[in-house]
Amino acid sequence: MILIYFLFISSFAKEILNEKGINLVTFSFFTCVSTLASCGFVPTNENMIVFHKNSGLLLILIPQVLVGNTLYSSCLRFCIWVIGKFSKDHNDEHRLKVDYLLTNSEEIGYIHLLPSLHSCLLVATVFGFILIQFVLICSMEWDSNGFSDLNFYQKVVAILFLSTNSRHTGETIVDISLLSSAILILFVVMMYLPPYTSFLPLNEKEELEDHLQPLQRRKMKSRKTKTLQNLLFSQLSYLVIFIIIICIIEGKKMVEDPINFSVLNIVLEVISAYGNVGFSMGYSCKRQVHPQRDCVDKWYGFSAKWSNKAKIVLILVMIFGRLKKFNMDGGKAWKLS
């Protein structure tokens, strides 16, 4: 679909790739895989900003962003259900397998195959978050500099694309440093949330936990395991520790260049790394309190201006974010009262 869009729909987008010397087929496959894998790499220096007026391309990428991450579980269950429908009258063995997968998802132990109710609530939660972001960005950024050169339809698609990418993929069509602080805080919250965050009513949650109790009893925890769990902090606690460490390392720059090296910019960079999103405030020479002649803008990555020690800490944050599912129960030993 991306390839067809460039060949037959938008000659302007094709000219952009030609000017940059990027092969059309390479760009199409690379962008498709990167978007589906929630990587966010785009083979252009400007991410997707250079295509911010190509609404058709953005609409093609939005479903890939959702299917590859937040809605992967729900789409997986839907595909299994469709296979069962098609094989219902043809193969009883296939139908039994499909029925077993759909009704015994907890026993299978595959974390991406959620129960039916949980999958439906996940869909509602994902689109609910997108709607909240869409409404807030429209109300606060509609006439901002980032969207000033777009018409009504292009603004709607661009804001929808930005709202969809804030959870994980991190492809952006605007320099997010131009957005208001309130929207940036909203992005921080969205990036912090795990992909399968969903609203689950208490009574339904209790039923699921009761159903899972027999499986948990089979895995009796040893004393060493309990001791280790008592020593673990929550995800938020570790992120605060990482942010404090980076602020200590970059303390001198925070004093000399307080606008670029603000706490909000550092927090957004760390949470973006933790959520494997890729949003960055970048670095602008115009925001320097004491301008330097040899300064170079690094809008594509604020961490490009960090010291090597801070970059190593950020790498650890990214690895920690990829492995966060193994410590989602951390911090339970702490009682807040």
From TrEMBL:
<protein>
    <submittedName>
        <fullName>Probable cation transporter HKT14</fullName>
    </submittedName>
</protein>
<comment type="similarity">
    <text>Belongs to the TrkH potassium transport family. HKT (TC 2.A.38.3) subfamily.</text>
</comment>
<feature type="transmembrane region" description="Helical">
    <location>
        <begin position="56"/>
        <end position="83"/>
    </location>
</feature>
<keyword id="KW-0812">Transmembrane</keyword>
<keyword id="KW-0406">Ion transport</keyword>
<keyword id="KW-1133">Transmembrane helix</keyword>
<feature type="transmembrane region" description="Helical">
    <location>
        <begin position="261"/>
        <end position="283"/>
    </location>
</feature>
<dbReference type="InterPro" id="IPR003445">
    <property type="entry name" value="Cat_transpt"/>
</dbReference>
<feature type="transmembrane region" description="Helical">
    <location>
        <begin position="116"/>
        <end position="138"/>
    </location>
</feature>
<feature type="transmembrane region" description="Helical">
    <location>
        <begin position="23"/>
        <end position="44"/>
    </location>
</feature>
<feature type="transmembrane region" description="Helical">
    <location>
        <begin position="231"/>
        <end position="249"/>
    </location>
</feature>
<dbReference type="InterPro" id="IPR051143">
    <property type="entry name" value="TrkH_K-transport"/>
</dbReference>
<dbReference type="Pfam" id="PF02386">
    <property type="entry name" value="TrkH"/>
</dbReference>
<feature type="transmembrane region" description="Helical">
    <location>
        <begin position="173"/>
        <end position="193"/>
    </location>
</feature>
<keyword id="KW-0813">Transport</keyword>
<keyword id="KW-0472">Membrane</keyword>
